[in-house]
TrEMBL record:
PROSITE patterns: MR_MLE_2
EC number: 4.2.1.39
Gene Ontology molecular function, alphabetical: gluconate dehydratase activity; xylonate dehydratase activity
Stretches assigned to the Mandelate racemase/muconate lactonizing enzyme C-terminal domain: 165-278
Protein name: D-gluconate dehydratase
One Gene Ontology biological process: amino acid catabolic process
Gene: gnaD
The entry's keywords: Lyase
Keyword Lyase: yes
Record-linked InterPro entries: DgoD-like, Enolase-like_C_sf, Enolase-like_N, Enolase_C-like, Mandel_Rmase/mucon_lact_enz_CS, Mandelate_racemase_C, Mandelate_racemase_N_dom, Xylonate_dehydratase_2
Amino acid sequence: MGKNYADLHDPNAEYTMRELSAETMGVTAKRGGGRDVEITDVQTTMVDGNFPWTLVRIYTDAGVVGTGEAYWGAGVPELIERMKPFVIGENPLDIDRLYEHLVQKMSGEGSVEGVTVTAISGIEVALHDLAGKILDIPAYQLLGGKYRDKVRVYCDCHTEEEADPEACADEAERVVDELGYDALKFDLDVPSGHEKDRANRHLRPGEIRHKAEIVEKVTERVKDKADVAFDCHWTFSGGSAKRLAAELEDYDVWWLEDPVPPENLDVQEEVTKSTLTPITVGENRYRVTELRRLIENQAVDIVAPDMPKVGGMRETQKIADVANQYYVPVAMHNVSSPVATMASAHVGTAIPNSLAVEYHSYELGWWEDLVEETVIEDGYIEIPEKPGLGVTLDMDTVEEHMVDGETLFDEA
Ligand SMILES: O=C(O)C(=O)C[C@H](O)[C@H](O)CO
């Protein structure tokens, strides 16, 4: 018999004083225009992409189905399964209340940050698709409307010779000229051969010179054709990060991402304030509460929430609102399938301070095949006018790439 985590006993979830269900809140008034809809089921299927994408579907008694996606990670499907009883019977149009309801119900299990927030995010994205379909409007309309018809996409680039500055520059040129992107990102936390110890976070002078050489070669090669960001994946000490960022001030760096670990806000703030190189942080922080502190302390020049991880579409919009008050742009981190990528683009059009949305799957070959529609064209996502997110899962592709042991979604 398989494991069943869904029925695990959680007293916090079973009884909470702050109970936000429709029944307890007395949300019973009849709604016109086909809006009296009830959620009947929630299902997940994990697809083995370049990350294990968790796709989510919410079914209703009206026969309308919403599709969403949570950021990848073990435990996400189990957590969604555990939350299912809290949304069944609810009206999917009450997105905000249902989000708060899940956060409250899952408090004991950890809904301040981490994988529980990721699981809630997947449900929240599916609710936006569903609500858009019920109301017959695109999801961005639920967020207040459009700032732009197309959202810019940046391509996360890789090469097998990731430590070779010329190879990185060649790849940058190829991605710009052949794939049509005008915004790129490369990893800068690549071993240079000058390391004495990979654990201590300290950058030796030769390592800094090597990183500066990658940045110089790449930015010079695509100068005036593309913006280029560089990612450090939470690797270096504050002192080393400051020296690296100072060295990179001579080049056209779009941003330097996550040079220090995300936990210590004081160090983060000091690094950001020490340099003219724009510093971007965000993908490992959760919900507006955590991102707010980063922004309010002016510890970040550009904020990078991962929408289907940070809390979903409305939570990302709330983060963008706080960022906007500090004149901070938003570059959405994204390693998702076309479903959450399109959902991020809907957020991107609904906020004034959208810089770009990441695309992290150009080497996969079948990323676009997961949905019937074209998602990225010439480095931009055109926001669809179809109801909901405007993407339709191609079930043959889902089935072909499902993680072993997964079952395909039920028909609508
Ligand atoms: O694209 C980025 O910015 C990343 O940091 C990709 C990471 O490898 C990924 O998010 C880690 O899970």
